[in-house]
Write a structure and sequence with these properties.
175 residues, mainly alpha
Length: 175
Amino acid sequence: MHRTRGKVMGVAVALAATGLLAACGDNDSTASSTPSLSTTAAPASQAPTSAAPAPDQGATPSAEVSAPPAAESPERPEPVPTDAVPPANTSTLGDKDKKFLDALATKGITPSTPDIALSIGAYVCQGSAAGASDQDLMTFVSAMAGSDPSFDPAKMPVEQAGKIYLDTAKQTYCS
């Protein structure tokens, strides 16, 4: 059993070394063909046993070779709880600001700070005044809404949040 483990470790080390050396190409930065996922390796019975001494010979492997981890899908970070953000001083907000924030809240939008919502509202008003189409504004409004730490994509899609910001700003903030 110890000799089999030594042979397997030898093959694994040989494959890892071959892979590392194969990655050191000729500095050609352009791809000329589609890479192949197949590899050729000598069967375990033909693997050199001198690449890594067997554990029964008094040598201990310094590192264990394992397969690379499977590619994982990127995960979206968890939203920051709204109680983690210090409350904004709402006494400095004007009536128009408060009306806009209240209208957003009734439609399910609770920004982590009023500044985020007010910046989005101001962007909508400025873009509309400059003649930008709703479709052009939606791209940036959705991006800004989605970047709010309190935005939770499980509650609503970012496009829906962007539409709520756009419509609410036009109705209550851009006057």
